[in-house]
Amino acid sequence: MAKLDYNEIKPRKYIVYNDEPFEILESHVARTQQRKPQNQVKMRNMLNGKVIPGTFYASDTADEADIIKREAKFIYASRGEYWFCDPHDAKNRYTIPEDILGNATKYLKADTIVDLMIFEYDDEEKIIGVTLPIKMTFTVKEAPPAIRGNTSSGGNKLVTLETGAQITTPLFIETGEKIIVNTETGEYVERAPKN
User: Fold this and answer.
1) Which structural domains are found in the chain, ordered by start?
2) How far is Cα of residue 149 from the mean position of the Cα atoms in its chain?
3) Most buried pick, 42, 95, 158, 195, via CB within 10 A?
4) How far apart are CA 185 and CA 121, in angstroms?
């Protein structure tokens, strides 16, 4: 486990704080004339999702959390259970609770390969999150019709994807079209190229 100095505790780093893994969301190193520098952070507990503030002083260090990534293939969801398997061994199946998946549930579709984030601590492994591919292609299941004449000025409408997620797209997108979505922001990127 690597040690991080107070000023190395930055966004997208994972640290162990009070024996639990945290992801750093924001950090700001403040230097005032009278006081020693301090790093004020916002961090998310990877086990329960709570966001808390924290302050690290120049004399502080933090252990970098041992987070490993492992590929998994999403199979299906049923009654709140999300089933995955090893991409190289379909018999090795397991479920991941919805609270760990978070927003990813909106964009999961069969056979999607995801990265599991696994926290290793005291020789134990615990799945603490899932990372989807940043750009994914979806079929538009429902889209309100564009009214003639309103597409020239631009504008947006809410469409429903095959997974049930709703996103905002330009007015020219129609039911049945394939579009590319940024799964981190939930934003429309572009129409998918036709085969």
Assistant:
1) 3-64 (2.30.30.30), 67-131 (2.40.50.140), 135-191 (2.40.50.140)
2) 38
3) 42
4) 31
List Cα–Cα distances, 68 to 4, 30, 78, 121, 165, in angstroms.
18, 31, 27, 11, 29
Q: What angle do CA 142, 147, 150 make, to 5 degrees?
A: 120
User: Is the whole-model pTM more than 0.85?
Assistant: no
Task: List the structure tokens of 83.
Answer: 């089933």
| CA distance to 112, 162, 179, per residue, from 192 (Å) | 17, 14, 5
Which pLDDT band holds residue 107 (cuts at 50, 70, 90)?
very high
Q: Which amino acid is at 54?
A: G
Q: Is 90 exceeded by the pLDDT of residue 192?
A: no
User: Does the pLDDT at position 84 exceed 90?
Assistant: yes
What CA–CA distance (Å, rounded) separates 32 from 126?
Answer: 40
In DSSP notation, 119-153 reads EEETTEEEEEEEE--SEEEEEEEE-PPPPTTSSTT
